[in-house]
Amino acid sequence: MKVSKAGAVAAVTVLVLTASGCGEDAADLPTISIGIKFDQPGLGLREAGGRFTGFDVDVARYVAKELGYSEDRIRFKQVFSSDRELMLQYNEVKFVVASYSINEKRKARVDFAGPYFVAHQDLLVRSTETGITKAEDLNSKNLCSVTGSTSAENIRTKLAPKAYITEVGGYSECVTALKESVLDAMTTDNAILAGYAAQDINQGKFKLAGLSLSNEKYGIGLKKGDTELQTKINAALRKMVQDGSWEKSVKANFGAVNFKHEPAPAITEGS
Ligand code: GLU
């Protein structure tokens, strides 16, 4: 059989495309990398089977869809409280949805869309604890929080400067230490703490102190100066609230948890 040169090239191309798993429609369509937490039940969690769940994950998926990315085109990347700005500055992710409080210090390095949620700093203690009822009680206690979080900074600079605070990489490490009685309390946003308290493996072990120690407005972090993306994400967030998806996700993720959430906040970033 005589095969023309052009025919041979076409055949090889088909072979290569098939071998690399690139079907016609799967090829060339862009993906989007989104930074989320992997260890915060109710907000951003990578479950044992690899499924991603939580309110932040729902928000990320909704926004991605509005930007034109179906679920199979999303690449979730793990971010830690201490590396969110860097992940954005180095283009590791397009945006970050990770219990990320908007504040001036962070806004020097990144921009935010939103806010899309309001949480308050609180404490998680063992259910037998009776000695912590207000922020000042913490001054003689061993606390745990996460490096790069507003929670740790608020304790050090404002709430209880004399407290001994251990800073770790992720909040789940604090939960383990608290369970093993190495520490007296862990501190971060109530939405995060409620998620841990409600986990099956933690049933009956912990309680929230119920203090509202700060206002934490969650924003979607994005690269500084990308006002076009900021405008698009703000529009997506408004739509998520208007069409009821926001409320539905909040109920699904925090409903079973003994946690009363704030209503959706007005969007103020970029306007
Ligand atoms: N919302 C706080 C922050 O952005 C605490 C939660 C977290 O570390 O992700 O620092």
TrEMBL record:
Alphabetized CDD domains for the sequence: PBP2_GluB
Pfam families linked to this entry: SBP_bac_3
Q: Enumerate the SMART domains for this protein.
A: PBPb
Q: InterPro entries from the xrefs?
A: Bact_solute-bind_prot3, SBP_3_CS, Solute-binding_3/MltF_N
Give the family from UniProt: Belongs to the bacterial solute-binding protein 3 family.
Name listed for the protein in its UniProt record: Glutamate-binding protein
Query: Known PANTHER family for this protein?
Result: ABC TRANSPORTER GLUTAMINE-BINDING PROTEIN GLNH (PTHR30085:SF6), AMINO ACID ABC TRANSPORTER PERMEASE (PTHR30085)
Ranges of residues in domain Solute-binding protein family 3/N-terminal:
31-257
